[in-house]
Amino acid sequence: MPGRTTVLVTGGAGFIGSHTCVELLGHGHDVVVVDDYSNSSPGALERVAKIAGRPPAGVYEVSLHDRDGLSRVFEEHTVDAVVHFAAKKAVGESVELPVAYYDTNVGGTVALLRVMQEHGVGRLVFSSSCSIYGDAAKVPLTEADPADPTNPYATSKWLCEQVLADTCRYLPGLSVLSLRYFNPVGAHPSGLLGEVPRGTPGNVMPYLAQVAAGRLERLRVFGGDYPTADGTGVRDYVHVMDIAEGHRVALEHLDDEPGMRVFNLGTGSGTSVLELVAAFQRACGTPIPYEITGRRPGDVPALVADPGRVARAWGWSARRDLAAMCEDAWRFQELNPCGYPD
Ligand code: WQD
Fold first, then answer.
1. pLDDT tens digit string along 67-84?
2. Ligand 1 pocket: which of 204, 293, 322 to mutate (most atoms <8 Å of CB)?
3. Where would you tag: which of 14, 120, 122, 289 has the fewest CB atoms within 10 A of its CB?
């Protein structure tokens, strides 16, 4: 989809969604944001407008389950494509609240698909996750490796992929790109936009940033007995701006062929929790207190991407390194100690 288009971004006030809005606006697209602000803030969209130099074409505080409210968005804008981020995304939380995760993530995706179909919109970029690979027998992982989700969050993403792939079989006009992110972290280099989780962060990078800022006492390292080099969990951390660029590139390839295609978005490099702590210490210039505790239910030892398919298909690859991820995350934390102004 070359040229200027109108892209509906669900969860557009969230961490990855807001950074993707900046990227799309910066490349001449118009964006329309739908968000229920359950894990985001309208303040993020003010920062999007400031960075991009222009605001979204429309912002709607709507739940995906609000069929009339969502339909109104499609009635008020000619939507060329949808980028669907809106979801719950914390592995640990999903183990405690499985039904909420299936209702929001799977139910919300089906509700969106229904309204898209009712309005003749057949282009979708879906926010999937590396977590569907589960306790992988090997890394790095290609898209051909089997799904083996180990927690309700991961299972919800895998179920969404099944629904989307099967729907494509019956709706020939539907084109879906499912992007399996590895671990998006960091912030926009301006320091104006970043990750602002509600309450205590579930993910390691925002938690680290708050420990460095003195808002939290110490990092609990979940498990020191994994079969990894230093015993702590290994992940493929990828800069959120690389992920945002990956979505913009995906939109340009939606019309390559009908049906659903799947792509890993990662760097291909694994980093342990202790290595991440060391990298963040270098970025913030202060020691990070931590203690090694028991494993977190639902966690797996290692998840690292083989990013070869997307590089071959689209020429996209992650460009920013771990130091930039930590420096940008720390800059955002320092400039926004309490997140976005209400
Ligand atoms: C990373 C590592 C933890 C917190 C995330 C997103 C998910 C998906 C995949 C996009 C693990 C350890 C964590 C803490 C810790 N992304 N950890 N102490 O679980 O890999 O999943 O990336 O779709 O949406 O949630 O990320 O940051 O929670 O954990 O030791 O306080 O850090 O055990 O090894 P995860 P995470």
1. 999 999 999 999 999 999
2. 204
3. 120
